[in-house]
Specification:
The chain is of the alpha/beta class. The chain folds into 2 domains: 127 residues, 3-Layer(aba) Sandwich (Rossmann fold); 126 residues, Alpha-Beta Plaits (2-Layer Sandwich). Helices cover 48% and strands 17% of the residues. It is built from 9 helices and 9 strands. The protein has a 5-stranded parallel β-sheet with strand order 2-1-3-4-5, with helices on both faces. Helix 1 packs across helix 5, helix 2 packs parallel to helix 3 and helix 7 runs antiparallel to helix 8. It is elongated and about 70 Å long.
């Protein structure tokens, strides 16, 4: 599905997807409706045209980047080579299409090109937000995804639970067995956390031996359940490692974490 945001783009969109019954077009005359439409329809792309002011075009880019980050934005402009077009590119628009002599085929190709460009950008962004050692989110990634999750909590009026896990004894492992063993301990802990959590939970390494979790829909009463699940997962993984690795037998059985948590109430952010 493609979401258009002005009446001026309607004919171009119809031309582009004529004969493609699997594509549905929704045209919005009010930018304020865009956020709800993105959440409801999960569009394949967002189109906007010259009927919007520059201010509204920037609003479209911001809303789409928040609510539908995998949907590319294509702007159809009468003057596609000026400062206005450059400003849109700087604010997240993937493709600028000249409105003059625009055909459906050209628009289709531009939408696909924008999609490919956005996917490449998102892959690079994901790498910049990932902790290279453990494969979980790094500090920046956790807080960025955490903010989005808390916005979801506010919008849906759900609680969320923030949990912090500190590894016990990582410095001693580094001092006695070397940093290679310490790196392995961090990887094992991250793996155990992932195994114990839901796929929807946000997990990040926010410090040297500190991990953070944000669980949307969880509440204070879930804290003991989640932390026990993590402890059991870590014990199991550490025992498996001690069984298969002679080098790890001196420290794997001692792996543990200390945890704390706090409940987030919708609207309290």
């Amino acid at each position: 599905m493609t979401v258009g945001v002005t009446d001026r783009t309607l004919q171009h969109v119809r031309d582009a997807f004529a004969g493609a019954p699997e594509c549905e077009v929704l045209v919005l005359s009010d930018v304020a409706r865009l956020g709800d439409a993105l959440i409801r329809y999960k569009p394949a792309a967002v189109l906007m045209g010259d009927g919007l002011t520059l201010h509204d075009m920037l609003r479209v880019s911001k809303i789409t980047g928040t609510e539908a980050r995998d949907a590319p934005i294509v702007a159809i402009l009468q003057e596609p080579y000026g400062d206005r077009a450059l400003g849109l590119i700087e604010h997240g628009v993937q493709e600028i299409v000249p409105a003059e002599h625009l055909t459906g085929r050209v628009l289709s190709h531009c939408v696909e090109r924008a999609r490919v460009r956005l996917q490449a950008l998102l892959r690079l962004e994901a790498q910049s937000l990932t902790d290279a050692l453990t494969g979980v989110l790094n500090r920046r990634g956790f807080f960025e995804w955490g903010q989005r999750t808390l916005r979801d909590a506010d919008r849906t009026e759900r609680t969320a639970l923030v949990l912090l896990f500190d590894m016990n004894g990582l410095k001693a492992i580094n001092d006695r067995h070397g940093h290679r063993a310490g790196d392995t301990a961090l990887q094992i802990t991250a793996y155990a956390l992932r195994q114990a959590l839901r796929t929807s939970d946000i997990l990040g390494r926010i410090g040297g031996d500190e991990f953070a979790v944000l669980a949307l829909g969880a509440a204070d009463k879930d804290g003991p359940i989640i932390t026990e699940r993590v402890s059991e997962s870590l014990r199991t993984k550490a025992q498996d490692l001690a069984t298969t690795s002679v080098e790890a037998r001196g420290w794997a059985g001692k792996l543990s974490t200390s945890a704390g948590w706090a409940e987030y109430q919708p609207g309290s952010g």
